[in-house]
Design goal:
heterotrimer; A mainly alpha; B mainly beta; C alpha+beta; A: mainly alpha; Cytochrome Bc1 Complex, Chain D, domain 2; 2 domains; three-stranded mixed β-sheet; two-stranded antiparallel ribbon; 14 helices; 7 strands; 45% helix; C: alpha+beta; Immunoglobulin-like; three-stranded antiparallel β-sheet; 9 strands
Chain lengths: 360, 106, 171
């Protein structure tokens, strides 16, 4: 029985309850005329008190009892409805359980573990070096290809009237030609990834989707993982979701991949024989060397990392962790890393998107 | 390689303002090695200058001690409105140029 | 003839820098008559110089450095040695008569002690400069300011830099 069902059934029990049935009935009362002899009921004061009490009981029964029950039921209904509404929209995905999950009240962004300088750098767009990549992403968004320096609109207007229909500009439409302003059209998009692509039966993350657009719609070569161009575009798209609360929808198609990702998060690996959860769930907030361990949340990626001295994707960060435990480092774009990305996005529900983040 | 020259939103004449510069550059130290064990060649921005309509406001030499994607901020009272031009040169001989128009309100 | 002699002189200076002891290799360079190429060489050598004490001495020409007027703000414990935020400010308005001509940031333990060398024009406002620097381990950094009257002022600050907990070898 879910919590909601329990809440509703309590309501249906309390409301029809007739509280007055528990109060003494008038027909069981004894009147003073029937007393005689040495019975304590014959004492006049007691009889008077007895009558007064009975009158109060009658009064209560007539005027308050039934209304009281209804008012009580109404108040309780209100409380239960509010409680149910709050329970129906959980902060934390109810789909996830297991030792890797952080309870929703304990969820913290990685930036809360960082120093004041790092927080200031992330908070100010004029200080955040990630915007150098976003500038590149903006330029690439407008252009047809990274080599094509002409803007699409000017190429079209410069074309002579009887030019062949497939001009350079038409063959390689820019992102802008379909999606216009990314801050509007891409709002909420990055948090829908990784998604399941039923046509190819595989998990696609944001980088994969951008490359699908590039190859199939723009007829351009795909961008390499961790290239400045791809980072620029993923950062630009993720920036459009900044401030939104990470929320995922679990379709049935995602369930097997999610389960595999979760298994990976909870499985020991590498020479150090550690699972992700050992550091990032069980010891988040503790120190490793001179650093504080974060919860390993994905909401700030792609991020500028001081360690790399450049921007990097979430998969690059996961590879750094694999290196840290001396495990086999899965290649960028591999199923293993994408499934882990999927699990992390569900695990991280409830946090506000911070991309582009700044991290140590 | 992109760069950003960031000015305050409403620069006013005669009022101190901070100019922030961010240049995208790896500032390769020459001390790192790639996966094959070969040293990665040193390549840093060795000199830069910021001028206002040709008059140099601020210039300098950087080295391997400056972080990648150099960030430079300095405060100034601009004598007049004009084009702020940033130029830089790195070890490989690449030059960079970024301009921004600064209109001072009074 | 004179030009050739000067050329030979600069070549000799370049040679003696590498072979000579601490005592005066660069000062010859700094003291000689300047042509543009020589100045560029001087800057390059300063930048590439690997010895903090020699560099310090030759920059200041052994003149006194007063540890006042220059203020340095740098975190006591750095997040990461690759990027440590540094803020410098120098008291006094930067007027034509009294301004900072040159600001030098030096590291005691970096492989190349010269972090940056900056030239300023009179900006009419207090000099405030910020940047992000690399530090190769815990050390002290020196910020030296050469004023328009050719006096040196400065400040020194200590920074602790720790190694990253999980070194990223994934490239």
């Amino acid at each position: 029985m879910t919590r909601a069902t329990r809440a509703w059934s309590v309501y249906f029990v309390i409301y029809p309850l007739d509280v007055s049935s528990f109060l003494p009935k008038t027909d069981t009362m004894v009147t003073h005329e029937t007393c005689s002899g040495s019975s304590k009921h014959c004492h006049p004061t007691l009889q008077m008190l007895d009558r007064k009490i009975r009158l109060m009981a009658l009064n209560f029964e007539d005027n308050f009892a039934h209304n009281y029950a209804q008012n009580f039921a109404l108040g309780l209904t209100l409380v239960l409805v509010l409680f149910w509404v709050q329970m129906a929209t959980p902060l934390h995905a109810q789909v996830l359980s297991g030792p890797g999950v952080v309870p929703s009240e304990k969820m913290r962004s990685g930036i809360s573990f960082a120093s004041a300088d790092l927080r200031a750098t992330q908070a100010d767009d004029t200080l955040n070096p990630a915007f150098l990549w976003i500038d590149q992403g903006q330029a690439l968004w407008q252009q047809g290809s990274s080599n094509d320096t002409r803007a699409v609109s000017s190429a079209v207007t410069n074309a002579p009237p009887n030019s062949p229909p497939h001009t350079q500009a038409n063959e390689h439409p820019s992102c802008a030609s379909c999606h216009q302003d990314p801050q509007q059209s891409m709002r909420g998009v990055s948090m829908k990834y990784p998604r399941w692509d039923s046509s190819t039966s595989r998990l696609i993350n944001l980088e994969g989707q951008i490359n699908i657009c590039r190859t199939q719609r723009q007829h351009l070569p795909p961008l390499a993982y961790e290239s400045d161009e791809l980072l620029g575009l993923t950062a630009l798209v993720s920036l459009a979701s900044r401030g939104l609360i990470l929320k995922r929808t679990l379709d049935d198609a995602l369930k097997p991949a999610l389960a595999r990702g979760q298994a990976r998060y909870e499985t020991r690996m590498g020479q150090n024989n550690l699972a992700c959860m050992h550091c990032h769930t069980q010891n988040a907030g503790q120190h490793l060397g001179g650093e504080t361990i974060s919860q390993g949340q994905p909401h700030a990626y792609p991020a500028y990392r001081l360690e790399w001295q450049r921007m990097g994707s979430l998969q690059k960060r996961l590879r750094a962790c694999l290196s840290g435990v001396k495990a086999e480092i899965w290649p960028l774009g591999s199923e293993e890393l994408t499934e882990l990305e999927l699990y992390l996005s569900f695990r991280g529900e409830g946090l506000a998107i911070e991309s582009p983040g700044v991290r140590r | 390689m992109t760069a950003r020259i960031i000015l305050p939103p409403n620069p006013k004449a005669g009022v101190k303002m901070d100019i922030r510069i961010l240049i995208q550059h790896p500032m390769e130290t020459g001390f790192r090695y790639d996966i094959s064990g070969a040293a990665i060649a040193k390549n840093v921005i060795k000199s830069f200058s910021l001028d206002l309509d040709g008059e140099t406001l601020f210039s300098g030499e950087l080295g391997t001690g400056t972080s990648a994607n150099p960030f430079l901020q300095f405060s100034v009272i601009l004598p007049h409105s004009g084009w702020l031009k940033l130029q830089w040169l790195d070890d490989e001989g690449n030059t960079g140029l970024e301009r921004v128009l600064c209109n001072l309100s009074s | 003839m004179n030009a050739k002699r000067q050329q030979l002189k600069s070549l000799l200076q370049l040679f003696t820098l590498s072979a000579l002891s601490r005592l005066g290799g660069l000062s010859l360079m700094v003291g000689s008559a300047f042509s543009v190429s020589k100045q560029a060489n001087a800057q390059a050598l300063e930048r590439e110089s690997e010895d903090f004490r020699v560099l310090f001495k030759n920059l200041t020409q052994s003149s006194r450095v007063t540890l006042e007027r220059v203020h340095v703000s740098i975190p006591r414990l750095a997040d990461n040695g690759h990027s440590v935020p540094l803020k410098v400010w120098v008291d006094g308005p930067q007027t034509v008569d009294d301004h900072v001509k040159r600001l030098v940031v030096l590291s005691e333990r970096n492989p190349r002690p010269m972090i940056s060398s900056l030239q300023f024009s009179p900006t009419q406002t207090r000099l405030e400069f910020s940047s992000r620097i690399r530090l190769n381990g815990s050390q002290r950094i020196w910020v030296l300011a050469l004023m328009s009257d050719d006096t040196w002022w400065g400040q020194v600050a200590s920074v602790e830099v720790t190694e990253s907990a999980c070194l990223d070898a994934s490239l």
